[in-house]
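Notes from the 1:1 (GR / supervisor)

We went over the backlog. Supervisor wanted to see one worked example end to end before approving the batch request, so GR pasted a single chain during the call. The sequence is below; no edits were made to it. Supervisor asked that the structure be written out right there so they could see what the output format looks like.
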Amino acid sequence: MSDFPRWKYALVVVVLLLGLLYALPNVFAPQPAVQISANRGARIDASMQDKVESILKKDKLTWDKINITGDSKQEGSQRMLVRFHSDDVQTKAVEALKDGLGNQYVVAPNLASTVPSWLRSLHANSMPLGLDLQGGVHFLMQVDQSGVRQRQEQVYTGDVRQLLREKNIRYLSVSHGGKGVVAVLRSEADRSAATDAIGAEYPDLDISNGPSTGNRFVLDMQIKPDKLRELAQNTIRQNLSTLRNRVNALGVSEPLVQQQGNSRIVVDLAGIQDTAQAKRILGAQASLEYRAGIAQYPDQRVIDAVEKGIVPPDARLYYGKACPRGCLLSKQVIVTGDELTNANSGFDQQQGSPEVQVTLNAAGAKRMRTFTESNVGKPMAVVYIDHIPQTKMVDGKEVHSFKTSERVISYATVNGVFGRQFSTTGLDSPKEASDLALLLKAGSLAAPMTFVEQHVIGPSLGRDNIRKGVSAVILGLSLVLLAALIYYKLFGLVADIALVLNLVLLVAVMSMIGVTLTMPGIAGIVLTLGMAIDSNVLICERVREELRNGSTPHASIRAGYEKAWATILDANVTHLLAAMALMTMGSGPIRGFGVTLFIGILTSMFTSVTVTHAITALIHGRRKLKTLSV
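Structure output shown during the call:
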């Protein structure tokens, strides 16, 4: 056994020391805390800390420690963390601080690390806990794919109308409905010219001739299936990005936002217990549209539209705070909320009313500047659009739908040319302004979403899951250790030591790469411990076989490791392939299980072969042996 090289001993020692070092932080249990982050230009400093302390003293809540992290020179990067001794005090503190600090700060429950600073300086941190272990809320959201089609049809309606004007093609109307986009032309020649122009400009539309009567020549346009599928995927991706931005605004640590299937999104918010607030922020579908104003009551055109239903073909009738008795706005949208790059709430210095200061992207700024340059002295309106989720029971089943609310919050005259930055007024309250700014800053959803499933996991249930998970690991590990020790004696003891070290290395690697620990992850750990002993079983049985064939003890050990390695490698490669499939194709709990299994297989190959070989070499290396305890 003297052929076991010294560099392998050094490798084993270094790896095990690093494993112990990076697994150590998981011994320190996290502490209940409240995280406070600034919003809309507010600051976190010493005076802010004094205010937090006074709020907690007023409610007779005791805290352990308050510290501020982040760069004071970079706006929005600082966080205040208030630590508590129990979950009950943490819950009361969240409510008290939310009421006391108002909308300028984001207050969210969190778990503060208790890992010593010297370990954190080495980037050694404990594994973050998942929703089922930490507690929080789980949402399953359904994307309204029909809304995607309708929205795109509305875009094509405006584009086709503009194209026909540019090409001087006469038409009576361009609208969209249940059959897609419908254009009514004045003659057969106009319809033919429109078909050629639209087909060349918008190849994603299927164009066909509709029924013709008198001087009405109909052209039907529908979005091609390939384009609809592309729009659906883009919608999912945009909604994922928007939801992640909104989750960040909630101040949640270690959130999970991922796609499930073709039209659903899973959102897990660990540490959050207020489902009403989370649903309001995540499910809100609020945006703005800036449209040219045509007429306002008591203009005769508005009276005709309100009383007789006679609406000009290029206009729509709206109501709202800015025009309670009605106003006509252009169907052509100047800029939408999707083209906003930033939004902050504040107060109008002249009137003292709530406002949202918006910043447009380059494309939106160009269109706004073009419009204002040619429409100084003319009205422009701001339309606030909100999609409100609704659930009705039909034949004993829940049917999800949306009620769309559109109201004019501002109808004012364009007094000068502007483009990239300006303010939107007409909001009812500072809270409405702050909520609108938050949603616009995070981005609007590409399509409305409904909450298909939701449930809350309390902190006490999370702790109970942790206890059960730890008990399962200890029980499974103990049974495997006992069986190996009884059946393989000294070699079984060596295998047991390697198995414990495998658990340490597995936890260390998961902590280093930041794998979130969940109940499926704990199941993966238990399965890994049960599978890891298989390699040592193969080695021990091979050593026994060599001894029965008359080989010397040293030769039997050497042959056992050499001949068993090929079998061990083959078996673990197939396990790795299965784990990779779970990681890449699975989602949520399945992916967590696959990640844990993949890491566990790699660490078990090292401990079961290299570590046990090193220990066996230390025990038997230079001794004269007559037999082996195997």
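Supervisor's comment: The chain has a mean pLDDT of 80.
Batch request approved.
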